[in-house]
Structure formats: C-alpha cells, structure tokens
Amino acid sequence: MNPYTHLYFIVTLFIYGWINFWQTNVYADVSHTLKSEDKCYSCHLDMELLPSDFQDYDIHLQVGLSCSGCHGGNPTSDDPEIAMSPQQGFIGIPAKNEIPNFCGKCHSNIDVMRNFQPGISTDQVQQYYTSVHGKKLAQGDKKVAECVSCHTAHGSPSVKDARSSVYPLNVPTTCNHCHGNVEYMQGYKIPTDQFEKYAKSVHGSALLDKKDIGAPACNDCHGNHGAMPPGLTSISHVCGFCHVNNMEYFSTSPMARPYAELKIHACQQCHGYHDVAKTFDEMIGIGEKSVCLGCHSEGDKGYQSAKEMYNAIRHLVDTLEVARLRLREVQKRGMDDIDISFILQEAHQTLIHTRTLVHTFDSQKIGEKTQEGISKSREAIVLADQEIKDYYFRRRGFGIATIFITLLVIALFFKIRSLEKAKSKS
C-alpha cells in the first residue's frame, strides 16, 4: 500500500476521533450545566416530561438554547411561580396560530441565526404564509400544519440527523401523518393515498427502498416552507428543477402553449403526480400503453407524429441490441472489443438523447438523431463481424498449421526410424 494512503487513514481517524471527543465533551458540559443551573430543564427531566437522552440530539439544546430560550421565564429558580412568572417574561405554550412567529423570533432574525447557521434562510415565516398551510392558518384553520407539526416541538434533531422527522428518508412519513389520515383530512377534498402512490413510484422506490436521499421527497416538489420551491413560478414546472433538458425541450415545443391555455400541468399530464412510473418507450406511439392516445386519435397530426417517433426509437433500440449481441460474441471469443465498446457507448448516449428529445414532439428531429445512433450501431456491427471473421480465419489457420506440424513430426519420426535401421544393418 502507498505510504501516503497510510498517512491519509491515520490523519482521517485522528480528525474523526477528535471531533467525536469534542462533541461528546461539549454536549456533556452542556447537559451538566443545564442539569445544575437550568431549573426548567432539570425539573422537566425529573418529571419525565423530556426523554433522558434529550440533550444528545436536540439541535437547540446542543447550542445552549434551553426551555427559557423559547418560553421565557426565570430558569435559575426552582419555584414554579417565580420561574413561570409573566413578570419574568414567561410565555408558556403558544397558541397554534402564534407558532410560526414564535419560532420566527430566532429563525427570522438574521442577527441571531448568523451566530449558529450563517447560510440558513431567514424568510421561512414569510414563505410559510404563502403556502396553503399558512393561508389556512391565517384564516383560523387550526388543523393545518405549522412549524412543530413537521419539526416537532421538543427534541428536534438536525435535519442531517437520520432521527429527524424532516430527514429526507422521513419526510414522506411525516407528511403522511396528516395527509394519509382519512378522518383528519375530511373536508379538504383532496386525496389521502398520496403516500401509497409515491411509495410505488420511481421516486419513492429510490428514496424509501434504495435509501437514495438525492431522490425527491414531498418537500422537493411542494416546497419546504413556502407554496412551492423558491424561484419557481408554477408548480407544474417543478419537474424541471431536476429534469432540466426535458423541461427546456417541452417549453419550446408546439405543445407548451396549448397546455398552458388549457391549464394542463406539463409533465404530470403524461407522467402522473405522486405515482410517477419508470418511463418506457411504449409510452409514446399508438400501442395500448401509449399516453399519446389520451388526447390523439387516428387521423390527426399528433397520432401520426407519435407513431413516427416510436418507430424511429424502436429502430435504434433494435439495431443497438443486435450490435450488443455481436459484441458479446466478440468478447466470448476473446477478440479485441475496445473500439466496438467505445462506439456502442456513443450509440447508447444517442439513444438517451433521443428519448429526451421526445419532449420536443418533433418527429423529424427524433428521426435525425436516431439515424446517428443507428449509423454508430451498424459501424459496431461491421467491426464485430470482422473480428469474428478474423477469429475463424485464425482458427482455420491454426488447424492447418497443426495438421502440417503433425505430418512433419510423423515424417521426421519415420525418417529417424529408417536412419536407425540403415545404421544397424551397416
């Protein structure tokens, strides 16, 4: 192993060990100080109103913000009347409609937040009141979610902590507490099966099954605190945050304007909302699984375009598959596959680009792009066939050479025998 690798591991272990030691001791000091000096915390802990490991994960407690930091009062007194006296600034439990501004005392104050997380946004409360939750709360609806509904009131871990209710893997379950409760959601006239659909979708499968925290959860599409992700003018275009090329192609396609006029959501019309399935080529065309037939019928321009797009892509897919089969034959025979593999990578990238171009709804562009991939695939087939031909040529040559050498050995054997006999007679 390279000596620099050893050094890297030693330094890394030292750094992690030091960080762990520092965190453990800092949190222990905070816990000790709270238990000995903060009577609010120690009393609530003794009354088992707080979990025993509260100080181990609460993000506020870890930076020294205890009960009085939010609720006010006098944390140095163990007399409840003094500790929770309004004259001492005690607030108590805020009403539901007061919670956003209650949390916003710190989270909307840039001078406070720069001391803890300088990069964090301080307009969450402002964003919240642009959302459906915020608007309904302002109207007096006390069932809608506010800050503690998602983040919890006490014992809030960092959003990067897997125990957090808003950690990416936990967000769908957190939202489902309300949105999946049929009884609770009565009167809102929205479905309650979003979680079940999402869990089966390509996004849900990536997040919940494969634990890919880069996959979108509820908040990635619907926004965290606001009505939609920042910088987005329409929720119908939220897919474009990740699928940039698809959205750009669609926005300049002939379908964009009719969709906007009919107020049809762009991506969701074909791909669905929460139950987004893995895409496949048969989604276009005129087959039973085609989504195009939801709007187009035989005889119109869209029907013909769908047919042409599908046929062009299938031609490329079929040609590419033939080339891959030839490549496997070359590899099986141990022949040179480097150039063939490289060409097929280019053909595969062309196929990916072609599938993205479907969002232009331009059968001519798709036809031109598929021809590029078909040409590459055919080039690979020619090279593969030549390698296979060379293989059999070499094999025949080896066979002929083997026979010739065998005959030569036999001839030499008989020649030696004859020489030995002649020698023995003389």
Helix content: 55-70%
Structure classification: mainly alpha
pLDDT < 50 runs, ≥5 residues: 19-32
Q: What is the H-and-E element order?
A: HHHHHHHHHHHHHHHHHHHHH
Largest sheet: none
Quaternary state of the chains: single chain
The proportion of residues in beta strands is under 5%
Domain count:
3
Radius of gyration: 35 Å
Helix run count: 21
Let me know the number of strands: 0
- Mean pLDDT, all residues: 87
Straight-line N-to-C gap: 71 Å
Descriptors for this entry?
single chain, 426 residues, mainly alpha, Butyryl-CoA Dehydrogenase, subunit A, domain 3, 3 domains, 21 helices, elongated
What does this structure look like?
With 426 residues, the protein is mainly alpha-helical. It folds into three domains: 74 residues, no CATH class; 127 residues, no CATH class; 122 residues, Butyryl-CoA Dehydrogenase, subunit A, domain 3, CATH 1.20.140. It is 59% helix and 0% strand. The chain contains 21 helices and no strands.
